[in-house]
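Hey, does this match?
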Amino acid sequence: MTKRILVCCGPGCVAGGSLKIADKLRKAVTDFSADAETICQVDNTGCSGLCELGPIVRIMPDDIMYYLVKSADAEEIVKKTVIGGELIERLLYKPDGKLAVHQNENPFYAQQTKVALRNTGIINPRDIDEYISRGGYEALKKALKMKPEEILAEVDASRIRGRGGAGFPTGRKWRSAVAVDVFPKYVVCNGDEGDPGAFMDGAILNGDPHSVIEGMVICALAVGSERGYMYIRDEYVLALDSVKRALKSAESRGFIGEDILGSGKKFILTVVRGGGAFVCGESTALMKSIEGKVGEPRAKYIHSVERGLWDKPTVLNNVETFANIPVIINEGGKKFSETGTEKSTGTKVFALVGKVRHTGLVEVPMGVTLRHLIYDIGVGIHN
């Protein structure tokens, strides 16, 4: 069986030299085997999560996790582990002095429930076939056979609330836009994430952009929109590149564009780069920015679902919300609602930063305590 070496190329690991590590691993694979491609494939992935111990390298299908990897380790990893089947103990995680070889043996990962992050750190985000191999775009195919009301019913049944902060029921927002008999209607993704220390949306956009694109197209089918915008923070260089590549490949496969999978449905999706203004993370300021105007918030009594972008009905959700939509359509809203609490269903992605021992990206069911996040997953506070 062909082995895969997954190299975390989230921003933290890239800063630690993971791109160079990936190149060194590819060279080592070639140097040690004339038939390299059938023995091992090296892939750059999005954020693996445990940023504190990056760069991270994961060897599949053996599920061997190496932490704090350096480029000098690449040759040894290929020679000893990939070819020889030998573990390199100094690169393993040692909770309570025990060796954690596999991901689920590391308490940081073992206590998470990944939905929005289901592909992040596992697939090469620049290869659409990897997303498809994990069920990607199956929800879109299913949605194309559904009536808009059926899509809305599943989102209602999931009881998902917007993950951007306000927590407004997503199904209610979509239905409000449908009720306004004005066209065109727009679908907007807020990827401006400017909160200090936050990198949840950036990690999803970089590590699994197709999940967000698919969620937006499904939303467009539900509300009757043919045009969408992804507003992404300009500082998210890796995410911007990943999304632009994903849009091109999605269009080439017919998942977006003038005729979605031959259905006669149309959805044109455009990336808009943020201008570095923190205020543009606020939805109405963001829409003004897309229009080319100064990003200033407006009075809240004017609802965006009635008068949003260019004074037309607009559905705006954040990155994480859209990433959940394909799961809701594929598995059903009722199943989604079984995780979390009665009023806040599903999971939530958090960025653990600051004086926590294990900083990184985590996803847990709604309703868990801060103590669980900080002490059980983040292994407590320094000093």
In short: The chain has a mean pLDDT of 95. The two ends are 46 Å apart (CA to CA). Residues 129 and 332 are 24 Å apart (CA to CA).
